[in-house]
Amino acid sequence: MSRLLSGNPLPRPEAAPASEERSAESALQRWQKLGFDPSRCPVRDVFDHVGNKWTALILMTLAAGPQRFSALHRAIPDISKRMLTQSLRDLERDGLIHRHVHPTKPPSVDYRLAPLGLSIIGPLDTLARWAEVNHPEIRDARARFDAQD
Questions:
Q1: Which intervals of the chain are annotated as region Disordered (predicted)?
Q2: With contact defined as beta carbons under 8 Å apart, do 97 and 114 qualify?
């Protein structure tokens, strides 16, 4: 998917140094001392929606431009119409997409990225590239793990 957006292969990322792991650990400890409440965390709230199974695919599809419902469904064929409808409503509710009704008879509707939705395409593309680069290693790790049983 990310190749469609950029066409540039990425070099394989290096492993994070142990010092970064320690600093991340200490950051969590600092947040907890400051009264960090995971149930009210804005990052968790956003990730719950953006991390949804279909959200990234819908947003990346809309990055190419406005799409009608049927075009979105063809682009993501394994999503049910009901789930696509619900996902589009959730994305509209979060302000990531706009539902545009054209004043025709019968009315036609398309979906397009809102400015907030446009702002997430860069991070999503980075994540998609990371997944593309690291997928073979993840597949191998899964196979090794599954072979242990």
A1: 1-24
A2: yes
Instruction: Judge whether residue 15 has pLDDT over 70.
Output: no
**Under a CB-based contact definition with an 8 Å cutoff, are residues 104 and 36 in contact?**
no
End-to-end CA distance of the chain: 33
- Dihedral angle, C-alpha 64, 69, 73, 75, nearest 10 °: -10
Could you tell me if 88 and 99 are in contact, meaning their C-beta atoms sit under 8 angstroms apart? yes
Q: Which of 24-33, 40-49, 70-79 has the lowest mean pLDDT?
A: 24-33
Among 82, 84, 93, 90, smallest CA distance to 57 is for 84
Integer CA distances (angstroms), 19 to 13, 23, 29, 33, 82, in order: 17, 6, 15, 21, 46
What is the torsion angle, in degrees rounded to the nearest 10, for the CA atoms of residue 40, residue 47, residue 94 and residue 5? 160
What domains can you pick out in the chain, each with its CATH number?
Answer: 39-147 (1.10.10.10)
Query: Per-residue pLDDT for 6 more than 60?
Result: no
Q: Would the pTM count as exceeding 0.85? A: no
